[in-house]
Amino acid sequence: MNKYFLIFFVLLTVIGCAPNNEDVQMKEINNQWGQNQKQTFVFDIKDAEQPKNIIFIVRNNNQYPYNNLFLISSFKAEKEKTSKVDTLNYLLAKPTGEWIGTGFGETKEALFLYQTQFKFPSNGKYQITLQHGMRTKTLKGIEDIGVKIENSTQP
Fold first, then answer.
1. How far is Cα 96 from Cα 109, in angstroms, rounded to an integer?
2. Chain-centre distance for alpha carbon 123
3. What percentage of residues in the chain have a pLDDT greater than 70?
């Protein structure tokens, strides 16, 4: 019995120490996202030769009054002066009003693919800034916003 426990423990330790191929950063919004409140995420890319997927994470609740979310994203290398700016429209609810995403209770988490198979130009620090582009000055119902960068598994 102890032999099996030891083998299980060693396997668990080896699996737990395997290199992590993703980096996730979240910012707490607390249901009050001001139109001028930019959320900035800085990532240190150490393997630029590996293609990446860049995914935006949105956690919303039932106080969110819309079925979509306009995001203004800004992407740049930390030492660069210019950035690539995109205006994106993501659906948070189906036409029936049912929230898209996963989660229990009134909070749902949705993942939105921003870039797939993206190759960073070089190793270094990169900055992604997100700001909501809705017509209201204070956006209610968004609990958290985040960015996930993961190694792409597509050939």
1. 18
2. 20
3. 86
Distance CA 150, CA 62 (A): 29
In one-letter notation, the amino acid at residue 16 is: G
List the domains of the chain with CATH numbers. Answer: 22-151 (2.60.120)
Instruction: Output helix, strand, coil percentages for the chain, rounded to the nearest 5.
Output: 10, 50, 40
Contacts of residue 102, Cβ cutoff 8 Å, sequence gap at least 6:
108, 109, 110
Checking DSSP bridges between strand 52-60 and strand 142-151, what pairing results, if any? Answer: antiparallel
DSSP states along 77-110: ETT-S--EEEEEEEE-B-TTSPBPSB-STT-EEE
pTM of the model: 0.84
Q: In whole angstroms, give the CA distance from residue 32 to residue 36.
A: 12
DSSP string, 7-27: HHHHHHHHHHTSPP-EEEEEE
